[in-house]
Specification:
This protein has 195 residues and is of the alpha+beta class. It is 27% helix and 25% strand.
Length: 195
């Protein structure tokens, strides 16, 4: 067996254990869901037993993930981006959409309710509301943004943003180095008299 295949197979057990624990499942609960025995699941997670399709397919279904996410298959030229959400302690979820250090970073953010705490740092931010209402505090100013509305600001100004009420808010969040500002290019329609 070549080294790359061996490495892929060795990574499946820890990945299975992490998925099960992230979902708060016991081996017994997962065994009930998949029809696999507790001992088989334990041996798979510890790497004692080599995974087969007969074992991985029920696990992929139970965890509601694609089979290639369990095996971390090598890239095949598939243009789709496989996003990895990051769950924060406060209940918020952050999904990085770009991975270019030193350039504008793009995130999808689902922000859970929390207390405002103004912060400052170097950079420039753009916030686009997808769903819910976003409360933005920028220095002495405060506003509420609705879906489709955008805010942009220099992050050296004390700021905070989060849900405007007790429901989560979903946003696209762009963060760039100071000096990088959004450039909006749009043409007015022929019937619109405003430039």
């Amino acid at each position: 067996m070549d080294a790359e295949l061996e490495q892929i197979l060795d990574g499946i057990g820890p990945r299975l254990r992490a998925l099960r624990r992230d979902r708060g499942l016991t081996l017994e609960a997962l065994a009930t869901t998949t029809g696999l025995s507790v001992s088989t699941l334990s041996r798979l997670e510890s790497g004692i037993r080599r995974p087969t399709l007969d074992l991985l397919i029920p696990l992929a279904r139970a965890h509601r993930v694609a089979l290639d996410q369990l095996v971390a298959a090598p890239a095949t030229g598939d243009p789709r981006v496989h996003l990895t959400p990051l769950r924060k302690d406060n209940g918020s979820i952050l999904v990085p959409l770009t991975q270019y250090p030193g350039r504008v970073q793009v995130f999808k953010h689902v922000l859970a309710p929390r207390e405002p705490k103004l912060v400052t740092h170097e950079g420039y931010e753009w916030l686009y509301v997808l769903a819910g209402e976003l409360r933005l505090i920028l220095g002495a100013h405060e506003c509420t943004l609705q879906p489709g509305e955008v805010a942009e600001f220099d992050t050296r100004e004390p700021h905070w943003f989060g849900p405007a009420n007790t429901s989560a808010v979903e946003i696209l969040h762009l963060f760039g180095p100071r000096g990088d500002q959004a450039v909006v290019r749009a043409r007015s329609s022929a019937t619109d008299p405003t430039p």
